[in-house]
Amino acid sequence: MASFGVFVLIFIFTLSYQPSPLVRSDYNLIKSLCSKADFPIFCLHCLTSNPSSKTASPRALSIIAIHCAENEANLWSEATSNLYERAPNGSPLKKILQFCAGQGFVAREDFTAVLQSVIARDYGGAKYTLINQIQPLVDSCKIDFLNNPNVPMPSVVAAGMQKVTIHCKNVEAILSNI
């Protein structure tokens, strides 16, 4: 009877044991993809912050990265909208923030198309949406502030645009290497 118990324990251990080289190879995949990104530290942080990344395929890792970029776009859009609500009526700042909030709203909605393209394995289409639809929306907000040098850009808006850009560039790099 004791030998049966030992057999069961060994059997359970064998089924549940995951050798560390397997985990390392998945982390190596993450490191490999992120090493080709424009901002590898942000890429690593994004991908490793999701527990499912340990066993994710390259395509699944790209989806995790897209969600990171989408999250940053949501945060930027919300922060810009909140500033718009608090800006003095009729001020040049309020006008620019209204424009930027609208751009942020459209940008964050466009991530749906990016995800759909990746799910359909249309990586070129996903990159096209990032490069030709989302990034220009972010850039147009920055340009609006640059065209109005007397209106200072709030730091939360600048930081949000920078984070969206960083994560979009990382997604582009991942999509180019899967």
Commentary on this structure:
About 12% of the residues have low confidence. The termini are far apart. The chain has 178 residues and is mainly alpha-helical. It has 7 helices and no strands. It is 80% helix and 0% strand. The radius of gyration is 22 Å and the shape is elongated.
Please write out the topology.
Layout lengths: L1 H15 L3 H16 L4 H9 L9 H29 L5 H28 L3 H24 L8 H22 L2
Helix pairs in contact: 2-3, 4-5, 4-7, 5-6, 6-7
Query: Number of helix segments?
Result: 7
Radius of gyration: 22 Å
User: Count the strands?
Assistant: 0
The helix-strand sequence is HHHHHHH
Q: Low-confidence parts lasting 5 or more residues at pLDDT below 50? A: 4-25
Structural class: mainly alpha
What helical percentage do the residues reach? Answer: over 70%
Mean pLDDT reading: 88
The rounded distance between the terminal residues' Cα atoms is 52 Å
- Inertia-based shape: elongated
Strand content: under 5%
Main pleated-sheet profile: none
